[in-house]
Structures are given as structure tokens and as C-alpha cells.
Design goal:
Elements lengths: L6 E2 L3 H25 L3 H24 L2 E5 L2 E6 L5 E6 L3 E8 L1 H6 L2 E7 L8 E6 L1 H10 L10 E4 L2 H9 L4 H18 L16 H27 L3 E5 L2 E6 L4 E7 L3 E8 L8 E8 L11 E7 L3 H8 L18 H22 L7 H19 L1 E5 L2 E7 L3 E7 L3 E7 L2 H5 L2 E8 L4 E8 H12 L8
Antiparallel strand pairs: 1-2, 2-3, 3-4, 5-6, 5-11, 6-7, 8-9, 9-10, 10-11, 12-13, 12-17, 13-14, 15-16, 16-17, 18-19, 19-20
Helix pairs in contact: 1-2, 5-7, 6-7, 9-10
């Protein structure tokens, strides 16, 4: 393909970038105004200045940003005082993603993100506003064909969406956000006559429990709503050698990944989903290794009994033959249990020592909980090699089963401590190109070394 003249982004990029810059500026201004008690008139003026600054940043950014195709590579140049040029050869492209937010839908444009292997976000090329036709042209120029009738299609219906939101793992993030807002509100109104604020009123165990329940409840509601927004309309399809994923309510995101760029898939059974026989599927790909879990989701909810069949439909290279995992021997059980039970006992002893001796039951209860977690980890652990696929299963907070293509392994190792060596035990660890790791602990050392030897006999990984 011959070189073409540099092109500007669609003029809608001015509005898109201006809005983003203005939200950042205004958000900072509002936060400072709340904390410092700025007068309303001054706050309004500062907000208007932030909006004007965002508009100026959007226009200058659009004027100074160009892109073009030169041979088999995409170029992007941007920057006001020190122009920066990024070049992405089509051979390094891992995926080409598009995002369409409310403003972009209104203006008839999409954001195009070109993901590359083994690079940080700063090395990717992002075009904040191009037309749908231009996005299709760039996809084809970078080696990704236009959508075709799918060979396989899996969609998340309304029932699955609600169940995924109800059982999702996002509550810890949401609780943190609620607690942060609670603390900020406390600082903002801590100007009462008695010098106290919200937190200072929590002067009894009942008040503390009620506040904690309120934070957890608000966090759960936020997590539920966030999952709805992120995963609404979720569908994944395979046409030819390309996997296409679409999701999102407010911002509609479309991801396309060549099958040969997928290192593996992880089956994740969280604490809330595992007992219900449910799981989520996540992609291991070098381009998406650093993204949050939502950005690596192959399917947000699937029955555990059907997970391997769904993976085989969407990523045929990960089809598993029937077989059983190589498990740790019975004598390894105490190694899973003892240190977790001991850790629980130590954590539980802290309140009894530092707060009140009446809190001593926390020690035995947490020790028992740790022991049960250890038994769960022992029962989950295992590894096997099935033709071109290696399977490693372990239990942390969630039970994770990694199905990885043997040719895409970046590293595999047998690891043992002195105590393990004396008991003829060892860990087997595998790492894929995205940085994802699976580790089977306390296997028979002979088993770990046998699997390691099998993996060594595979040819070197495919080049990116």
C-alpha cells in the first residue's frame, strides 16, 4: 500500500476532547471548592474558566493531530510544542477496538484504539473521532477484514445480565468509592458548632454497624448499576479467524482480536458465583493484559459446566480432550491448611490484644475460616497437558482455571522450597504473553517435572 497524505481527525474530535478536558478541570475545581469552602460566585467563575480551558485544549489538540497509512503501518502525530509521532506496523497489531459514547453517537463518530503487543497504553494509537466508514477503512488497512456472518455467536440476555450484575466482583471498588465520598462529605460539613461531623457521631457499636451496613449497601447498588452499564448488550462472535466482542450501555465498545493473538482463557469462579455453579471467562492477550477485568471479559457469565464447551466454540485452539487434572497428593493438604489457619489466628488475635480481651473469639473463628480456605485451595489445585493446551487450576479468593495455548507460553518453571524438597513436592508455574500466570502448588515433584518436560518439548512461541 502506498503512502497517503496526513489527515486530521473528524472535527467532532474538538467537542469530544474539549468535554474530556473540561470534565477533568471542572472536577478538580469543584473538589477544591468543596474542601476549601470557596464562595459560590468564585466557584462559578472557576467552573466557567475550566470549561473555556477545556474547549481551547480540544481545538489545539485537533489542529496538531494527524494520522496516515504509510505502507503496512499506521502513523499518528500529535503535540503542541514537541510533536510526537507513533508508528504501529500492522504485523504488531493485536486488536482494533472502537468505543462510541453518547456524544460520539450524537455526532456520528467513533473512537478507534489500535492495541499492540507488549506495549503500554502510551504506545497505543488512539483516534478520538473518526467516521464509521473511516474506521472500517483503517481496520482493513491494518489487516482486519470487515464483519462477516458469524460462525459462532454467544449473547448475554437480560436474565444473564441481571445475574451477572447481582453476583459481580465489583463491590470492593464501589465500597471504596462510597467510603471516599463519605469521608469527603464529612470534611465538607465538619463545621458544626460543636466541631463534630458525620464520622464523629459514630459513638456506639450500633451506629458503627449501621454506617458500615449503609456503606456496603450503597456500594452493592453502585456495583450492580456499574455492571449493567458495562455489560449491557454483551455479545461475542467468531467469524473466520477473528473474535468480535461488543458491550456497553452508555459507551458502546467493540473489540476485535485475531484468534492467533489469544494466549489463553481464564475461567473465574468468584466467591458469590462459585456456589451457584457460575463463572466468568476472561481473555489472556498481550494487548489487553494491563486492562481492568471488564476489558478482558470474553463472557461475563456462563454456567461452569458449560464453560469449556463455550470456550471451544469461540476459540477452537483451546478445545480440551477429556481427561483429569494431576492433583496434589494427600500429604500436601496440611501445607494448604496450616499457614492459612495460622494467618487467620494471628489476624484474629489483634483485636483481643489491642482493643478488648472479649474479642478473643475472633482468633479461633478466623483460624477456622483460614483452614476452610486451605481445604478449598487443595481441592481446586491441579494441572494437565491436553494436546496443544495446558490447564492450570488454583484457588485464591476466586477459583481460577487457566487454559493456555502451549505455543503461547512465555515461561514455565518448577519451583520448590527446602521444605517442599524434603517432602518431594514442588510448584509448577506457567506464564502467558499477557503476563497472566497459573500456579499449581504442592504437586508431586515427579509430576511437576514431568509436565515441565512435556512443555519444554514444544517449539518456541509464535512471534507477534
Amino acid at each position: 500500500m502506498t503512502s497517503e497524505a496526513p489527515r486530521h481527525l473528524h472535527p467532532a474530535a474538538i467537542a469530544v476532547d474539549a468535554l474530556r478536558a473540561a470534565l477533568q478541570l471542572v472536577g478538580g475545581i469543584v473538589l477544591v471548592a468543596i474542601v476549601r469552602g470557596t464562595a459560590p460566585g468564585t466557584a462559578v467563575l472557576l467552573t466557567l474558566a475550566g470549561i473555556a480551558g477545556g474547549a481551547a485544549i480540544g481545538y489545539v489538540g485537533w489542529r496538531r493531530t494527524t494520522y496516515w497509512i504509510d505502507g503496512p503501518a499506521l502513523h499518528r502525530r500529535s503535540g503542541v510544542f514537541t510533536p510526537d509521532e507513533k508508528i504501529v506496523p500492522s504485523a504488531r497489531v493485536q486488536s482494533v477496538d472502537t468505543t462510541t459514547g453518547p456524544l460520539q453517537r450524537l455526532l456520528g463518530v467513533v473512537e478507534l484504539r489500535v492495541q499492540v503487543a507488549g506495549a503500554s497504553d502510551a504506545d497505543e494509537i488512539v483516534l478520538t473521532a473518526v467516521t464509521h466508514a473511516e474506521a472500517a477503512r483503517l481496520r482493513q488497512a491494518l489487516g482486519q477484514p470487515a464483519p462477516a456472518p458469524p460462525d459462532e455467536l454467544v449473547a448475554l440476555g437480560l436474565r444473564g445480565l441481571l445475574l451477572a450484575a447481582l453476583t459481580g466482583p465489583q463491590i470492593s471498588v464501589a465500597v471504596s468509592a462510597v467510603a471516599g465520598a463519605y469521608a469527603l462529605l464529612h470534611n465538607a460539613i465538619d463545621v458544626e458548632e460543636n466541631g463534630g461531623g458525620l464520622i464523629s457521631r459514630l459513638d456506639s457499636p450500633g451506629a458503627v454497624a449501621l454506617a458500615a451496613a449503609g456503606v456496603l449497601g450503597a456500594g452493592y447498588v453502585l456495583a450492580f448499576l456499574a455492571a449493567i452499564v458495562v455489560f449491557a448488550g454483551f455479545e461475542v462472535q467468531r467469524d473466520g479467524r477473528l473474535l468480535r466482542i461488543r458491550r456497553g450501555l452508555l459507551a458502546r465498545r467493540a473489540i476485535s482480536i485475531p484468534l492467533e493473538r489469544i494466549d489463553g482463557v481464564v475461567i473465574v469462579e468468584g466467591l458469590s458465583r462459585g456456589p451457584l455453579g457460575l463463572a466468568a471467562l476472561r481473555i489472556e492477550s498481550a494487548a489487553h493484559g494491563g486492562e481492568p477485568a471488564a476489558g478482558r471479559t470474553l463472557l461475563p457469565l456462563v454456567r461452569r459446566s458449560e464453560a469449556e464447551r463455550v470456550i471451544a466454540r469461540l476459540v477452537p485452539e483451546l478445545t480440551l480432550a477429556a481427561g483429569e487434572l494431576e492433583r496434589p497428593p494427600p500429604r500436601a493438604l496440611r501445607r494448604f491448611v496450616l499457614w492459612r489457619a495460622g494467618t487467620g489466628a494471628l489476624v484474629g488475635a489483634v483485636p483481643a490484644v489491642t482493643v478488648d480481651a472479649a474479642a478473643w473469639p475472633a482468633g479461633p473463628l478466623l483460624a477456622l475460616a483460614g483452614a476452610l480456605v486451605g481445604v478449598r485451595a487443595y481441592r481446586a489445585c491441579g494441572v494437565r497437558v491436553a494436546d496443544s493446551v495446558v490447564v492450570v487450576r488454583e484457588a485464591r479468593l476466586a477459583r481460577r482455571t487457566l487454559l493456555a495455548r502451549r505455543r503461547r507460553l512465555q515461561q514455565h518453571a518448577v519451583i520448590h522450597t527446602r521444605l517442599q524438597a524434603r517432602a518431594a513436592l514442588a510448584d509448577l508455574s506457567v506464564t502467558v504473553g499477557s503476563g497472566g500466570e497459573g500456579r499449581a502448588r504442592h504437586l508431586e515433584r515427579a509430576t511437576a517435572e514431568s509436565v515441565f518436560g512435556t512443555l519444554r518439548r514444544v517449539a518456541s512461541p509464535d512471534h507477534y
